[in-house]
Specification:
Structural class of chain C: alpha/beta
Strand content of chain A: 25-35%
Oligomer: heterotrimer
Number of strands of chain C: 13
Radius of gyration of chain C: 21 Å
Strand order of the largest sheet of chain C: 5-6-7-3-8-9
CATH class of the largest domain in chain C: Alpha Beta
Number of helices of chain C: 8
Distance between the termini of chain A: 45 Å
CATH topology of the largest domain in chain A: Rossmann fold
Radius of gyration of chain A: 22 Å
CATH superfamily of the largest domain in chain C: P-loop containing nucleotide triphosphate hydrolases
Shape of chain A: globular
Number of helices of chain A: 10
CATH architecture of the largest domain in chain C: 3-Layer(aba) Sandwich
Chains: A alpha/beta, B alpha/beta, C alpha/beta
Distance between the termini of chain C: 41 Å
Strand order of the largest sheet of chain A: 5-6-7-3-8-9
Helix content of chain A: 25-40%
CATH superfamily of the largest domain in chain A: P-loop containing nucleotide triphosphate hydrolases
CATH class of the largest domain in chain A: Alpha Beta
Order of helices and strands of chain A: EEEHEHEHHEHEHEEHEHEEHEH
């Protein structure tokens, strides 16, 4: 089916005096993986709940598969919330059986990795395996849209890669995927990114679009602990990356001055900024206002 | 919808505590009501005091089970026997008509006694002590005081402890330099205070609203209540050490609470229960506190005559508290933990994903 | 002062959670522990915290008074405010009066929590709550600080804040042991430990770990051996332990994520199940 799978058109949501989502427009097409980024409280979860039809919009419009998100349309949607939505006191097989029947789909076969645990209670499984089960349950009815809320939080590198394999495979088969994540490496695996801050959509597009005009400077020195302390004390947004210290949106001359005053020998070098640094600057702006 | 039903059944099958309640509770209630529910007391402990006591004893119907015959005794002696709850009825001879003193604090026994004595007619003058109008409220209020303490002690305390476990903050307490016993005492102190205040309020209200007397020593009453509180608070702590969630804790606490309501003598008199069920009543702390509260409030009994419930409650307090503390210490102190940390759930089960 | 577990073995029933593990945590440095579920991270941390007894091996850990611990769960009491939480913990460690007030103000400022001081812990965002748990763990200036996945599920900005707090603690002499699923954090640590099924796969400073990594990692659109490949972004990486990739494949310099995954795969594929 062609056409936009998920759409938000100038969507706003208010809770009393508080605006959780402010005039956000976005869409998800078939075959693409869209990453939704933002700090806690940026409005990601509220936006998702409106897209799913769990809460009403205050103004604007939300489309799921071409129309309002009603029960019929949600049948073709797969959703994995942060809490996984599994029943801890049921086995893997029982969980899959329940969700398959609820959607009117066939019970999915277990992949070799999970097959030995078919009759194990879900709450006794390690987190990575639980996430796999949650995925299976969401995919059993071949959904056209997948919405995943932090699907790999707390999972180790190997299991994370396996989950992303599944996400990619779904996209390749034509589904549209909306993912929220705090892992910047995963952001790089998405086709397109959306960055929210304070309820607004502040940037969208490629990684470069998200980073925008943020700059960064890498400070290389043997005396990293003291350099870190000195820069931190100066109120500079400093962060560690490997052995180097990174400062976002900084004036190299000002940094050099601080380091010289602290008697630290260091070399400064402009480097490409990261998404995290853009988010750091956004949060500093929000705090200052 | 069928999927929903199947799922709920499966979850229920795994939830042993709820299953226990669903199956055991009705059986328990049936058995109790079958064997325990009996308002009619079939025999009364009786004393006969005064001249020709033995002859009077022989004349009494078998309904009056004479345990004390004291020819040289006086009316004061008879009253003491009643106050100390040694007998339900005391006949004082040496006068016409014979005086029958009835222990009004044992409501059903007293009602049975009065009914029987009325049949005897003018030869006997009946006088009900401690509860002259045989009011139910006078007997109930002292028992309800105990019930409230039990309620607060078990149900509410058990939740308070489980909260730490559910929130995951128990781990932090474990590595802090704070002794497990201090954690327990610190946690139950507020409940002790609240329960005490509640008790005072109910007692005062009971006295004001229902004119229930308070004939005995407030100090003795407070002492008994304090010991009893320790027992039920200890029970609350114990329940929290065997529960993973607040829901489980409440279920378990209910399990401990319900028998105490039915079998402590509060509703159905212990003497009237079939022996097979009565012994359960003697295991329950509320039974003994009710003895204390009724004895002190209605009869003005001294501690000495209430030594049995005091001693039993003290022993219970020590046992329950020690048991609860030991179990709790296992949760807090270094050693083999009862279960591995949440993130390592898999490590405990022989399950590997690779 | 260096704290450590040496040759530690811990069993839960029939499962071996830690198998002959030796890890040292020197004062003033950050040691990061990584590994999958069931690898033994939490068990290692709890062992060093003195929370569980070992079946074999020894633990050198400071007395409770000088130990700070942030568990994997929330780390704070939901029904108390930020200030009340700090006061409670500080009280247990013996801080009081002006000293307590000064320390509390200092920590709230460092964690950027001062505006939220009167808010209930339950009303804080995940990142703020972790930061609160962190400052509660260091309120008494511990000699050893143990953090169990302090940054899991936290937004990137709070992660940076937390890492800054960790660095500050290390810079002031505290020994820090933390577990993480973020490999970029592990790279920043002075010393990292990779656990797998209760054993140490490799440990050391990141440079040394990278240098001692044997074998080659290649990158391609499709893998040659499915068992030995994993997804990185749009491409697939593949591990050749013997260092003999077929001609025509592109070699890449492995980062820590590659190394950890490659070593886990090696263990999985070579160990008879």
């Amino acid at each position: 089916m062609t056409g936009v799978l998920l759409r938000a058109a100038r969507v706003t949501r208010r809770f009393g005096a508080f605006t959780a989502v402010d005039d956000v427009s976005m869409q998800v097409q078939p075959g693409e993986v869209v990453g939704l980024l933002g700090a806690n409280g940026a409005g990601k979860t509220t936006l998702i709940r409106m897209l799913l039809g769990l809460i009403a919009v205050t103004s604007g419009r939300v489309d799921l598969l071409g129309g309002p998100p009603d029960r019929e349309r949600r049948r073709r949607l797969g959703y994995v919330p942060q809490g996984l939505g599994l029943y801890g006191d049921l086995t893997v097989r029982e969980n899959l059986s329940f969700s398959a029947r609820a959607y009117g789909a066939a019970v999915p076969a277990l992949p070799p990795a999970l097959a030995p645990h078919a009759d194990v209670l879900v709450r006794a499984l390690p987190l990575g395996a639980q996430r796999q089960v949650a995925f299976l349950a969401a995919l059993a009815h071949s959904p056209q849209v997948l919405v995943l809320d932090e699907p790999t939080s707390g999972v180790d590198a190997l299991a994370r890669a396996a989950l992303w394999d599944t996400i990619r495979a779904q996209a390749e088969q034509g589904a549209g995927v909306l993912v929220t994540t705090h892992y910047m490496q995963e952001a790089q695996q998405c086709d397109r990114l959306l960055l929210m801050s304070g309820g607004r959509l502040v940037a969208q597009g490629s990684e470069a679009d998200i980073i925008g005009s943020t700059t960064a400077v890498a400070v290389r020195t043997d005396d990293w602990a003291r350099a870190f302390t000195a820069l931190n004390a100066a109120g500079v947004p400093v962060m560690l990356e490997g052995r180097a210290i990174r400062v976002a949106d900084a004036d190299p001359a000002g940094l050099a001055e601080v380091l010289r005053a602290a008697g630290i020998q260091a070399s400064l070098q402009p480097v490409p900024a990261t998404i995290e640094e853009r988010m750091l600057m956004l949060s500093r702006q929000a705090r200052a206002s | 919808m069928k999927a929903m039903i199947v799922k709920e059944f499966r979850e229920l099958a795994r939830d042993r505590r709820t299953l226990g309640m669903l199956i055991v509770m009705p059986l328990l209630l049936l058995v109790i009501f079958g064997y325990a529910a009996n308002f009619y007391v079939s025999s009364l402990k009786t004393a006969v005091v005064g001249p020709q006591a033995s002859q009077v004893t022989k004349m009494l119907p078998s309904f009056f089970d004479v345990t004390v015959t004291e020819p040289s005794g006086t009316q004061a002696d008879a009253e003491t026997l009643l106050r100390d709850n040694k007998v339900d009825v005391a006949f004082v001879t040496g006068q016409t008509p014979v005086l029958a003193l009835v222990n009004g604090s044992n409501l059903f026994a007293a009602q049975s006694a009065v009914a029987a004595l009325n049949k005897v007619g003018n030869q006997v003058k009946t006088q009900v002590l401690y509860n002259p109008d045989l009011k139910t409220s006078w007997v109930m209020v002292p028992a309800i005081i105990g019930l409230i303490l039990t309620f607060i002690g078990t149900i509410i305390t058990s939740i308070g402890m489980v909260r730490e476990r559910e929130a995951g903050t128990l781990e932090q307490l474990a590595v802090m330099p704070i002794k497990p016993s201090r954690v327990i005492l610190g946690k139950i102190a507020p409940y002790f205070l609240v329960a005490s205040v509640d008790m005072i309020i109910v007692t005062v209200l009971g006295i004001l609203l229902f004119s229930v007397p308070f004939n005995g020593s407030p100090f003795a009453f407070a002492l008994g209540a304090a010991i009893f509180l320790f027992v039920v608070l200890g029970l609350g702590v114990f329940i929290s050490t065997i529960s993973q969630t607040a829901g489980q804790a409440i279920q378990t606490a209910f399990f401990f609470l319900l028998p105490q309501i039915l079998l402590s003598g509060m509703i159905f008199p212990l003497e009237a229960m079939a022996a097979g069920v009565r012994w359960i009543g003697y295991l329950l702390p509320l039974t003994y506190f009710t003895m204390i509260s009724q004895g002190i409030m209605l009869r003005g009994a001294p501690i000495a005559s209430l030594w049995l419930p005091f001693v039993v409650l003290t022993v219970m307090a020590v046992v329950v508290f020690t048991g609860a503390t030991l179990r709790f210490r296992r949760d807090l102190a270094p050693g083999r933990p009862a279960s591995p940390a949440r993130g390592e759930q898999a490590a405990a089960e022989p399950v590997s994903t690779t | 002062m260096t704290y450590s577990v040496r040759s530690a073995t811990v069993r839960f029933g029939s499962t071996v959670a830690l198998d002959d593990v030796t890890v040292e945590v020197p004062g003033g440095s950050v040691v990061a522990v990584v590994g999958g579920d069931g690898a033994g991270k939490s068990t290692l941390l709890r062992a060093l915290a003195g929370e569980l007894a070992l079946d074999a091996g020894t633990v050198e850990t400071p007395p409770k008074q000088r130990l700070g611990y942030l568990p994997a769960s929330s780390g704070s009491w939901a029904a108390l405010t930020v200030t009340q939480n700090i006061d409670f913990v500080a009280g247990i460690y013996g801080l009081a009066g002006d000293e307590l007030a000064a320390r509390r103000a200092e920590l709230l400022d460092r964690a950027a929590l001062t505006p939220a001081a009167g808010r209930l812990a339950a009303q804080l965002s995940g990142g703020m709550r972790r930061k609160l748990g962190f400052i509660m763990a260091i309120v008494h200036r511990p000699a050893l600080l143990i953090l169990d996945e302090p940054t899991t599920g936290i937004d990137p900005v709070s992660r940076i804040d937390l890492w800054r707090l960790v660095s500050e603690a290390a810079a002031s002499g505290t020994a820090v042991l933390m577990s993480t699923t973020y490999l970029d954090e592990a790279e920043r640590a002075a010393h990292l430990v990779v656990l797998d099924s209760g054993r140490v796969l490799v440990q050391g400073p990141y440079d040394r770990v990278r240098a001692s990594f044997a074998g080659v990692v290649t990158q391609a659109g499709r893998p040659v051996r499915a068992d030995w490949s994993w997804r990185r972004g749009r491409v697939l990486h593949e591990y050749w332990p013997e260092g003999q990739p077929p001609a025509g494949t592109t070699t890449v310099a492995p980062d820590l994520e590659d190394i950890v995954i490659a070593l886990s795969l090696a263990r999985r594929n070579m160990v008879p199940s």
